[in-house]
Amino acid sequence: MKDAPLKDLQYALRMMRRTPVFTAAVILTVTLTVAANTTIFSAVNAVLIRPLPFSDPARLVQVAEKNDKLNLPNFGASVLNFLSWREQSRSFEAPIPLLW
After folding, report:
1. Distance CA 42, CA 34 (A)
2. Which run of H or of E encompasses 74?
3. Average pLDDT across the chain, whole number
4. CB of 16 within 8 A of CB of 10?
5. 8-state DSSP, 77
6. What residue spans of the chain are helical by DSSP H?
7. Are 12 and 27 in contact, with CB atoms under 8 Å apart?
8. pLDDT top residue among 100 and 91
9. Cα distance between residue 96 and residue 89, in whole Å
10. 74 and 66 in contact (C-beta within 8 Å)?
11. What tens digit of pLDDT does each residue of 55-76 get?
């Protein structure tokens, strides 16, 4: 009875040696599955599970521009426009910090 797991392992290794292409395909499939699972979990963890590193994330705002001539509904503001808006801002409790 003690030798059963060892004999099973020996049999599995023998079968893998007999079919190297199938073995490589299985190992590649398992590797890709683990990598995909890790990637998806990391993204979900960063975006949905872990809270934002701010004291009150509901009060965050996004600064963006709109260009009707080029049909661009939303794109990041240029640095000069952002700095100008920051100087003229009266809607926020504190000046908008630079994050870069």
Report:
1. 12
2. strand 72-76
3. 85
4. no
5. P
6. 4-18, 20-44, 79-88
7. no
8. 91
9. 8
10. yes
11. 877 877 777 888 888 888 888 8
- Alpha-carbon span 71 to 80, nearest angstrom: 22
Stated pTM of the model:
0.47
Chain position carrying tokens 């001539």: 69
Tokens 């890709």 sit at which residue? 32
27 beta partners: none
Phi, psi of 69 (to 5 degrees): -65, -40
pLDDT at 100 over 60: no
Any idea how long the chain is?
100
The answer to whether 72 and 66 are in contact (CB under 8 A) is: yes
Domain ranges of the chain: 4-49, 55-100
- Exposure letters 50-60 (e unless 16+ CB within 10 A, then b): eeeeeeeeeee
The 10s digit of each residue's pLDDT in 25-43 is: 999 999 999 999 999 999 9
